Amino acid sequence: MPSGRSGARGSVDIVGALTVTLGLGATVYGIVRAPEVGWASPWTWLAIGAGIALLVAFVITQAVRRDPLVRLSIFRIPNLGAANLAQVLLGAAWIPMWFFLNLYLQQVLHYSAFPSGAALLPMTGLIMLGMIVLAPRVIGRFGVRTPVVVGLLLLAAGLGWLALARPDGTFVVDVLPASLVAALGMSLAFIPSLGTAISSAPPEEGGLASGIVNTSYQVGSALGLAAMTAVASAFGADRLDDVTALTQGFSAAFIGAAVIAAAGALLALLTLRVPRS
After folding, report:
1. What does pLDDT average to over the chain?
2. Which single residue of 15, 22, 139, 272 could bond 145 by disulfide (Cβ 3.0 to 4.6 Å)?
3. Which ranges of the chain have pLDDT less than 50?
């Protein structure tokens, strides 16, 4: 424990917890509701505007409060902010892929619930194998930046491949190979970005760093899924009786998620620092 703080008692930052929770909730709600009520609807922009205002209020309160929920200066630590950004974009690309791939299996290929879940097992197995066996070896050989960049690029490639799925496609041709490429990319990018985000902080702030990076991934997942749901609906995924329109909508969501993953790879390449020997 830092010197001079052994007897200190902190206070609960209720204002910070409320503003960040309500801000994120309102923003996601506005994006999710937009395809139904319309992007031109005042309710859409009222929800999104209120969410952004609450998030700005959160940042302001964290900057001026003596015992903030999140000490903002922690983001000045080298690689911590960059690794968290990688986690945000990784979640924003990966979770929509998982969601819309399941919908493609059930609504276009007409798989029932159990077969569609079983169809994702090869991808799950590869992720486990990649995280346990491959990722640590790649990190030991090349450091953390290379696997994050390559992993996000592979995820983008797998998503782009999934965007080519056909209305009359099959699991073996349209789903399996592309999903395995995406899973390999996920397994390469997740572990080094997560580890970097946690290990970059001082030991006494390891809990805060862990909380931030987990929140970053969850926030990225929620915002990415909300945005890609809006994209899919705009391109026909809301027409449940037309498999061609459904496929076009899902393909648009896969392309959008691929762009997010590619942007994450570029930002990781530019912002993650390679420690000198």
Report:
1. 89
2. 272
3. 1-7, 277
Return all residues near 181 (Cβ < 8 A) that are at least 6 apart.
154, 157, 158, 161
Domain that holds residue 131: 77-271
Rg (CA), the chain: 20
pLDDT of residue 276: 52
Is the domain of 131 the same as that of 152?
yes
Q: Which is nearest to 65 in space by CA: 23, 22, 5, 10?
A: 10
Q: Do residues 247 and 167 make contact, with C-beta atoms less than 8 angstroms apart?
A: yes
Q: Read off the DSSP letter of residue 59.
A: H
Q: E strands of 92-245, at which residues?
A: none
The model's pTM: 0.86
Position 244 in a domain: yes
Answer whether 267's CB lies under 8 Å from 85's CB.
yes
Looking at 51, 70, 89, the residue that finishes a domain is 70
| Nearest alpha-carbon partner for 92 in 195, 226, 183 | 226
Q: CA–CA separation, 137 vs 247, rounded Å? A: 38
Is residue 93 within 8 Å of residue 261, measured between CB atoms? Answer: yes
- The verdict on 114 and 45 lying in the same domain is no
Residue 209 covered by a domain: yes
> Which residue's structure tokens are 């805060």?
208
Angle at 69 between CA 11 and CA 47, to 5 degrees: 125
Position 277 scores a pLDDT of 43
Q: What is the DSSP string of 206-227?
A: HHHHHHHHHHHHHHHHHHHHHH
Give the whole-angstrom CA distance, residue 260 versus residue 7: 46
- Rounded to whole angstroms, the Cα distance separating 236 from 96 reads 16
Q: How far is CA 238 from CA 61, 248, 258, in A?
A: 40, 11, 21
- Residue located via tokens 């994120």: 24
